[in-house]
Amino acid sequence: MLFAGSRTATRGQAAGQRKLARTVVPSGRERTFREDEIIVSKTDTKGRITYANDVFLKVAAMSEGQALGAPHSVIRHPDMPRAVFRLLWETIASGREIFAYVLNLAADGDHYWVFAHVTPSFGPDGQIVGYHSNRRAPDRRVLPAVTAIYARLKAEEDRHANRAQGLDASAALLDALLREKGMPYDEFVFSL
């Protein structure tokens, strides 16, 4: 396990971590983890990993040196719609928790699905000092529905030449879907 403060990333490690995030090519292979395993990570308020358990390291195919200090986005899969991440970050930055299905990319190019529970961590003064995420194996029965929705969102993002406009359009599509269902995202994912 890695603990906050047990080691900090050097400038060279940080550059290597950014390079890793840009150079990993999806292999098309899915990896899974056991239902009794929980992936745990913590980040600072900027999203840099300050803690990762052994399950995180194993499933993400990362070493301790690659994980500590890396932006959590180092495991972001390119097929994952950015609109879901926007919703996630807006929710936790406001002090609330969120549950979400997330497609991640391991350092070796394999992908893996998780059902994430992400919460803000508060200091003694009530201010957010970081974020904590527990990820379980997803309910495989709902992944086809999640995949279809995420493909629509990602297609909307990719339809726009301007990334910011694509993100805004995808977020609007997600908002419209949730309004149509009459529920917030968390309830929606539990209803699938």
UniProtKB/TrEMBL annotation:
Signal peptide bounds: none
Matching InterPro entries: PAS, PAS-like_dom_sf, PAS_fold_3
Domain PAS fold-3: 50-132
Region (Disordered): 1-21
Gene3D superfamilies, sorted: PAS domain (3.30.450.20)
Protein name (database record): PAS domain S-box-containing protein
Species, as recorded: Tepidamorphus gemmatus
